[in-house]
Write a structure and sequence with these properties.
Length: about 450
């Protein structure tokens, strides 16, 4: 008989409705909590019949059963934080307010009023009942429409969002996060207001309608972070980044717009080892091929992006790069995540246009390399770099790369930069998988050697 090895985790609680489509509500909350490293418990306030296209029916759970669920969880589990979602009626809001009034843990209130599909999820009478629940909250997380209903202020810009947040704090919330996803603009700005601070979280808007479950996911991530011991600002900062990735890589499910990807961050972390090994495989093939002809003055590097990478420190690369030797090439050190900046930024820019591109390498570029690429039948795009002092002319703005590889043409095999005074010309080879990248690099090296 084996000895068990228990895993001790913080506990979070969600008080919300069930979404039969799985993208929002209790289902989204529990997925997010698990992905955020906490054990999720639940109190179901209603059962909905819904999918990615809309809500067809709502069946509230009797309030006495809601209270019984809450008591069952809190009597047995050491809850570190809770969140509320869809409550539906004034009676339900009042019941939940009564339950959490003496709670020894922080409560995140997501004042769910309308589904992403546009279907109303809250009786108008319940809007007035929310004030008492907000007064019990550690963080309240309305979107622009909900903030307008609760405060009378339309948060159409950052200044108005701060004003709405201040009104919510005056109602008794310890912190108010006024979300900017429903406000117009190319950039989404979420504003966190506390009695002592005003913090804005800005990020580029993702051009997608697959945002089903976004509010539930954000509030659950905040609650999970609070249960793990973070303060409100750190909890919100981490949760906003979590949601940004979940929206950037949505799930293509159902016949409607689809759902946010609640497990994208967790699966991205799980993909790091595979990505490091894949980059190591490319390096081994370059060493075996003796690919001296590819190495530029700044050294050659290979980078690999995890499946849902968002930042340069999530890409694997050769630490210290690959250098020429008398007989071939060798890596200066091993492969690790976060070892590259310029080439990682380049690959992330390509992935903004083509998310299937996961691997890239930089190599020298001159007329001989151009002729070799032409002989191999490669598609090649050109981009002008923005070299910085001391960086060897490697810096290329994301905007410039995105313009170079923008559809309708398919992603090129290489993006080349002719350089300028003080900047070395470079080529950057791109591929969807490590084997393809290794094949392109070794074929290019062989073509150069045979010329």
């Amino acid at each position: 008989m084996r000895t068990p090895a228990p895993d001790v985790r913080p506990v979070a609680l969600t008080v919300a409705g069930s979404d039969s489509g799985g993208g929002a509500g209790i289902q989204a909350d529990l997925k997010t909590m698990e992905a955020s490293g906490v054990f999720g418990t639940s109190v179901i306030t209603s059962v909905t019949a819904q999918n990615t296209r809309g809500v067809s029916s709502i069946h509230p759970v009797p309030t006495e059963e809601v209270r019984a669920q809450y008591e069952a969880v809190t009597e047995d589990f050491e809850v570190g934080a809770a969140k509320t979602g869809m409550l539906g009626t004034a009676e339900m809001v009042e019941t939940v307010t009564d339950c959490v009034a003496e709670a020894p843990f922080p409560v995140v209130v997501d004042p769910v009023m309308v589904a992403t599909s546009g279907d109303r999820l809250l009786d108008r009478d319940a809007e007035r009942a929310y004030e008492d629940l907000i007064a019990e909250s550690a963080v309240v997380t309305p979107n622009a429409d909900e903030a307008a209903v609760l405060t009378g202020t339309e948060p159409t810009d950052e200044s108005a969002a701060r004003e709405a947040g201040e009104a919510l704090v005056e109602m008794g919330a310890e912190a108010a996060l006024v979300k900017g996803g429903h406000a117009p603009g190319e950039e989404v700005v979420d504003v966190l207001v506390t009695e002592k601070s005003r913090v804005s979280f800005a990020h580029e808007r993702v051009d997608t309608d697959a945002t089903h479950g976004s509010g539930c996911t954000l509030s659950s991530a905040i609650a999970a972070n609070l249960a793990r011991g973070m303060d409100a600002t750190a909890a919100v900062d981490s949760a906003v980044a979590f949601l940004q990735r979940a929206i950037r890589y949505p799930l293509d499910v159902g016949e409607g717009p689809g759902s946010v990807h609640h497990l994208a961050e967790m699966r991205d972390r799980a993909g790091r080892t595979e990505t490091v090994e894949a980059v190591e495989g490319v390096v081994d093939k370059l060493v075996s091929a003796g690919a001296r002809a590819l190495v530029p003055e700044v050294g050659l590097n290979v980078v690999g992006a995890t499946p849902y990478a968002e930042r340069p420190d999530e890409l694997a690369a050769v630490e210290g790069r690959i250098a020429r030797t008398k007989s071939g090439v060798r890596p200066n050190r091993g492969v690790r995540v976060g070892a590259s900046s310029h080439l990682s930024e380049f690959l992330l820019a390509v992935r903004e246009v083509d998310s299937t591109a996961r691997f890239a390498a930089n190599c020298r570029f001159d007329d001989d390399v151009a002729d070799a690429m032409d002989a191999l039948g490669w598609s090649v795009a050109r981009v002008e770099s923005a070299g910085e002092d001391g960086d060897g002319g490697e810096s290329v703005s994301r905007a410039a790369v995105r313009r170079a590889v923008e559809p309708p043409t398919e992603t090129p095999a290489a993006v080349v930069d002719g350089g300028a005074v003080g900047r070395e010309p470079l080529a950057r080879v791109v591929a969807a998988d490590a084997d393809t990248l290794a094949g392109r690099l070794t074929s290019l090296a062989a073509e150069l050697d045979s010329a």
